[in-house]
Write a structure and sequence with these properties.
heterodimer, A: alpha/beta, B: mainly beta, 13-stranded mixed beta sheet, 2 helices
Amino acid sequence: MVDCHAMRESMPQLLTESLDQGRRELAHQHIESCPACTAEWNAYRETWTLLGALPEVEVPARVRERFLAELAPAAAVDNVVPFRRRVATKWVAQAAAVALVVGTSFYAGHRSRGVEITPTKATVERMPAYSIAENRVLPASALSPDIQGRPNIHNVQFVDPDASDNKIGLAFDVTSHVTVTGSPTDRSMIRLLAYVLENENSDVSPSRTRAIEWVKQTYSDPQNADPEIASALAKVLRNDSHTGVRISAVDTLKTLPGSVSADTKAALIDALKSDPNPAVRIKAVEALANIARSGATMDAATLDTLRQKAAQDDENLYVRLKAGEVLSSIRPQ
Amino acid sequence: MVRRLTFALIVLLAYAMPALAEVRSVKRTTREYPMYLGGTFVVENAAGDVEVLGSDDPKAVIVMEKTVRATDNDALEDGVQQTIVRVLGDEKLREVQTVLPAIHSDKWTSAVKFMIKVPRTVHVKIISLSATRIHVANIRGNVSVKSFDGSVLLDGVTGASIVDTANGNVIFNAPAVNLSNAQLSSVNGTVEVHAPANASFQWVGETIKGEALTTFPARVTFLGTRFRGGVNAPGGPTITTQSLTGNVAVLQNGVPMSQVKRLQRPDTFDPAPFGPPLRRVVQTIRQQIVQGTFEVSTRIGNVAVGEIRGNARVTTGAGEVQLGSVFGNCHVTSLGGPLNIGDVLGAITARTEAGDVLVQAARNGGTITTGGGTIRLLYTGGDTRLQSGGGDIIVRQAAGPINAETQSGDITIAVDGGLKTEKVTAKTAKGNVMLNVAPAFGADIDATVITSDPDVNNIVADIPSLQVRREEIGGKTKIRATGKLNGGGDRVELYAEDGSIQINTHAGAPVTVITR
C-alpha cells in the first residue's frame, strides 16, 4: 500500500518524463504488477491526453477584469501575516536525527559479528553510450492474463526470434517498448493477441492483414488452437471497417480448428448476410461449409439465413450456390 | 464353402450387432379435437413424417406415433421423457408441436410421425426440420409447408400453396379443376408439377444448375435464369417452380418421361466487354493437358486444366477456375468464384465479379480484376493493371510497370531488384501502401496520405531527399512527400487514405515482412 501511495505521487513526474531512469523503471515495473496502479496510471494518461486535446479558450476581457478586481482587495487585507520559517527548530531536529543514526550504527556494529567478505573478481559492464528508448523483454507467463482497462498500444510487431522453439513474441509500445514472448498457448499471450486483433486502432506493423496471416500460421496448428483467438477474429470480421482485414479474418476462421463456437458461427452468418464485400461473403459461406462438413449441427436461424441466401436473386451466383452446397451437407439440430 | 458361409455370417452379425443392441419404444396415441371449418391447423415437427388429409368431419383427429431409439434402457427412458408432443390452441387455431431439448444425449434419437385428419376447408401449415415425407391431400384451404429435407407431396390441394424446402423434392399433383396459385421452391431438390392434360395455368420457373423440363406443349420466354410461359390456354393461376441446383418440371399425367422436353434457354451469359458470348456450354471441365487453344464457357461449374499449349479463353457464370501453365494469351472471366492461374507466357486478362485471384506469373503483364477479393500476383514481366473492389493487392516481383488500385485494402508491391527504374502507381481508398525497391532504384516519387489520424498514419521512407508537406483538408490531414530517389527516374505515385505509405529501399527488402 505504501508503495502504491508513493508510486501514485510520482505519477505526474512519470507523465512529464521528469523522473530519473532508476525510479522510472521501478515505477513502470510497479504499475505493470499492480492492477490498481495500472488503472490509476491509465486514468492519469487519459486525463493528460484529454487536457492536451482541449482547445485554448481566450478569456473574455470583461471576465479577466472582474477577476483581477476581485483579487486586488484580497491582496490589501491587513490581517495576512507573512510566513516565517522556524530555523532553530529545524536545526535541532536534524541534529537529533543524525545523532540517532550514528548512535544506532555504532551500537549495531559492536553487538554483531564481523562480516567476512570473500573477494570476487570485479567486472565492468559497458553501459550503452546513448539510449533513446527502453526495451524490455517479458515472458508471457509473468503477465496477468487480464488486461486492465483499454491501454493504447502502438507499433505492434509480431516477432519470432527463434523459429525452432515453440515460442512467439509480440513487441509493442505502451509506456515503454515491450516485447512479450511465450508459448502460443499461454493464456496471457492469447489474451494479448486477441486484444491487438480486436483493437482496430492499434497500429500494427506492417499491417493488420499480415498480423492475421501470422495468427493463421500459428494457430492453424491444432496443438495451438484456442477459441479465444477464433472469437477475436470473429469480432474483427464483425467490426473492422477495412475490407482486406475482414477478408483475412474470415479466411483464417476457415482454417482454425477451434472456430466452431456459437459466437464464430454467428459472426460468419452475419458476414454472409450483410457484409458488403462479396469476397467476405464467399469466404464466410465456405467457412460454414467447412463447419457443416465437420459434422457440427446448425441451428434454425443459421439454416434460415442459408436458405434465404441461396434464394436471393440479387446475390452473386457463386455465393448462392455455396449456400446451397452448405445446406446439402448440413445436419439440422 | 463352409468358410465362406462362416465369413458371411460374421459380416452379417457385425452389421446386425448395433441394431440388436438398440432398444426402441413406439407409442401410438390418438386424440380428437373440434375444429372450425375455416380454421387453421399448424404442425411443427422436429423429426418425423407428417400426413394431413382433408375430410368431411368437423374435427381434427390426430394420430401420433412417437418412436424413440436408444443404446440402453436408461437412455430410452430419457428419450421418451424428453420427447414431448403438445397440442395447443382452440377450434380456430389448433397447433400440434413436438418439443425436444436443444441439447440432449446422443444415446437416443426420437421421431414423431403424425397422421392427421382435418376438415378439408381448413388452412394447413407445416414446419418440419427432418422428415422423410410430408404429405398433404384433399385440402381446399391454403397450404404452407416449410421443411429442411424429405419429399413434400401435395395431392389435390385446391387452395393456394407455398412449399419451401432446403434439400427435399417437391411433387405437386394438380387437381383437374379449381387449381390455385402455387409457389414451390427447393434449394437442392427437384420440383415437379403433375397436371391433367387439360389443365391451364401460367408457369414461372427458375433453376440455376438444373434443367427445366416439360411434357406439355409449353412456350416459354427466358429472362436470365427465370422463364415464364403458358400451359394450354392462356391465363389461369400461376404455378412457380424454383430450384437452385435441381430440375424443375411440369409433366402431363399419363405421358411417359421419354417424351420429356428440355426448355432451351438462350445463352444468357455475356462475357462482354471481352468479346461475343461463347456458345458452347458445359457444366464442369477437368483436363490435364490441352494441345492448342482451349476455349470453354460454363454457366455453372468449375474449370481445372493443368497445362494449355496455346491460348486460353474461359468464361464461367459461377465457379472456380484453376489453370496451370498457359503458353499463349490467357483470358478468364468469371461472374463469381476464385481464379487460380499459373504461369502465363502471353498476356493475361483475368476478371471475376467476386473472389480472390492468384496468378503465379504474368510474363507479359495484362489486367487482373476482382469485384471483391484479394489479388496475389507473384511475378509480372510486363505492364500490369490490378484492380480490386475491396481486398488487398500483393505483387511479389514486378519486372514491369504496375498500376494497382483497391477500394479498401493494403497494396504491397516489390519491384524486381534488377530494375533501375519503373513506373508504379498504387492507390487505396482505405488501407496502406508498401513499396519495396532495390537500393539503386531511381524514381520521381509522389506519395500522398489522407488521414484523420496523422499520429498513426504517415509516410515512412528511408529517402532523405523527400520533401514532406502537411495540410488540413476538410477535417483530414493530407501528407504529401515528393522527391527524387537516386537522381530520379520513372514516376512512382502512391496514394493511401486512412492508412500509411511505406517505401523500403533496402537491398533485398523482404516482401513478406513476417516470416515464420
